Amino acid sequence: MMLRTVVPIAALAVLLSGCATVIKVAFEPTTPAKPLRAAKMPQLYLESIAVNPDAIKSWSLTRNPPQFDPPVEDALRDVIGKELGRLGISLAANRLCADALLRVELAKGEFKVASLEKPAGDLTFVLTLKAHSGHSFWQQTVKGTATGESVWVTDPVVSTLFSQCVTMALEQMGGLFEAQNVAAEIFSAEAVSPRPAAAAAQCAAPALAAAPTPAAAASDSAEEESLEPAKVNTPDFGADDRLVP
Question: Where are the chain's structural domains?
Answer without folding.
Answer: 34-203
